[in-house]
Structure formats: C-alpha cells, structure tokens
Amino acid sequence: MTSRCVLPAEWAPQSAIMLTWPHPGSSRGKDITDTEPVFLELARAILRFENLIISCEHVIRLQELERELNAWAAAHELPGRVHTAPAPANDIWSRDHGPITILNEGQPTVLDFRFNAWGGKFPWEKDDALNRHLANFSLFGTAPVHSVDFVLEGGSIDSDGEGTLLATSESLLTSTRNASLDRGAIEQTLSETLGADRILWLNHGYLAGDNTDSHIDALARFCAPDHICYVTCREVADEHYSALAAMEEDLQNYRQRDGQPYKLTALPWPDPVFSEKGERLPATYASFQIINGAILLPVYDLPQDQEAIDIMSTLFPDREIIPINCLALLQQHGSLHSVTMQIPEGVTPV
C-alpha cells in the first residue's frame, strides 16, 4: 500500500453502530409510523452486541428513546451502551451521511466527507453538517475528526480491509458529485484518504427504484478478503437481467492480489416489490449489516427470505443471523445497510 491508513472491513471489531432516527420532517419520512418500529428492532438487536449511537432532530422523542432503550438494555444486563445527541437531519440514511472511519497505523481517524444527497436529488444541508454535531457531543470520543472536501457516501464503497475497494462507476464518477474530478483524480483521492491502492470498478448493475446511482452496497459486498457475494437475476424477461449478468461477468474477471479469482456467492433474487404508486422498489439482500457477532439481514416477507438467511449462515458461520423486516424502509427506496453506519473499535462514544 502507498498509504499507512486503511479503511477497515465491516467485519472488523466495532465500537458502535450509528442510527439517524426518523422524524416527521424527514424529506422522505413524513409518516414515520411504519419506519420507527424497524429502527426500534434494529436498535435492540445492535445493543445486544455493541454500543448504539442515535441522533434525532426532535429532542423530546430523543429523550423518550434514551429512557426506553436504556431500560431495555438494563433489563438485559447491557448498561451504558446507549449514546444519544440532538442533531438536525434531513433524512435517515446514516450509511451515506455518516462518518467514514479509517485506521492510521492502528489509530482511528473519523473522516467527514461532504454529502449532497446523491447529486442533489433531495435536501441535504442538515445531513451534511450532522457529523460535526455528533463530534461536538463527543460521540466519537477523543478520535480526531477531519473534514474532507470531497463528496463520498459510505454506501458507494465496500472495503476488504486490506486496501481494496469495490465501487460502481455510475455512482462515484457521476458529474453531480465531484464534477471537476475525473476517474484518475477520484482514485487518487480515495488512495490519499482511505488508503485504497486497488479499486475494483463495477461498470454494470443497477436496481430499479434506487436513487443512489447504483451504490455498491445494494449490489456486491465483500464477505471476506477473498470472497464477494452479489445480486444476480436469472429471469431473462426481468428488466435487471442484462445489467446484472454483465456485473456478474465483471466479478468473475476480477482477481485478488495474488492473481487468483475471487470466491463468488450469488444472493437470491427477490420477487418484485412495488410502492403504493406502482413503482418498483430496490429490494436486495446485499443490504446487510455486519456487527460484532451477528449479521443484520433485511427481509421483505418474500419466499426468497429463507434462502437468503441460509446463505448468510453459510457465509458467516460464526455470527448469528438476525432477519429484520425492512419493507417500510424499502417504501422509502432504501434498505437496512442504508440506515446504519459502523464505528470501528477504538472510537468510544462518551
């Protein structure tokens, strides 16, 4: 590697998971009746294994959550794991507006990249300032927080923890994010900030209803340094077939540092899910969150849910598989990984 820093893999030991709690003013979350139960289920699952960081724009609701979750944690002999801060937010997608934490010679540094709502698709100013609010409340402990003048969402990259990133060209190279930078300049920025000396670019693959310009975390994920799981569609008549078949070919052509091909595991293709307006939604089993000792796996009340659970059990035999019904998140065009952001070990909220 050309840099001493590295972006840890998601399976590396974690200190906490961050959630940006829904509130009625969220740009796509005006009715949070269905969304809050998903967040509460996520919160309780996370607390079983590690710290939980919650920010919420509504102070009264945040105080209620703090009491409720602290009581739950105490009842399960898990005190001291709930950490909260009032902070304005446009929306709930912590994966993309949350901090990205690197290890520099083993010491954590919290990077606050710019966020512009996937190229200006929605309001973003509150989300772009959120990490600084959390830092002011010492939720990143004593770890240094550095601002980076570069638009980057956490869902657009996936790390093997050894200097290799997975990314899609459609999201990272779009002109609505970093218009003045070409591919070479973006690769240089990722090398300097994240220690990435290899980027595996996916030039194909998309999900209908996805507002992120094909984030990698909905399509393909490292599950070990030599192993990638990915979304595939075997139904020729489906609109996704050609793009995902081309993406699969890209993955088959990738090589590890030693020249060996990656182990590849195809994830189930879920039946179509539609919004109330008849729009196809981006259902994907790739949107899982790895936490200490467990996998939080999105499910959608579909026949393919059990197959996804079984595959995850094979991929991560030493972790508990916890299915979370994410239909309510899907109605907002996102899923489980989109609302979570891991904070690596060494960043201890105060």
CATH superfamily: L-arginine/glycine Amidinotransferase, Chain A
CATH-derived topology: L-arginine/glycine Amidinotransferase, Chain A
Low-pLDDT ranges: none
| Overall CATH architecture | 5-stranded Propeller
- Oligomerization state: single chain
CATH class group: Alpha Beta
Beta fraction of the residues? 15-25%
The average pLDDT value, as a whole number, equals: 95
Straight-line distance between termini: 33 Å
Could you tell me the radius of gyration in angstroms?
A: 19 Å
**Secondary-structure element order, N to C:** EEHEHEHEEHHEEEHHEEEHEEEHEHE
Shape: globular
Pfam families: PAD_porph
GO molecular function: agmatine deiminase activity; protein-arginine deiminase activity
Keywords: Hydrolase
Organism: Marinobacter adhaerens
Provide a descriptive summary of the structure in words.
Helices cover 27% and strands 25% of the residues. It is of the alpha/beta class and 350 residues long. The chain has a single domain (5-344), classed as L-arginine/glycine Amidinotransferase, Chain A. A four-stranded mixed beta sheet has the order 1-5-6-7, sandwiched between helices.
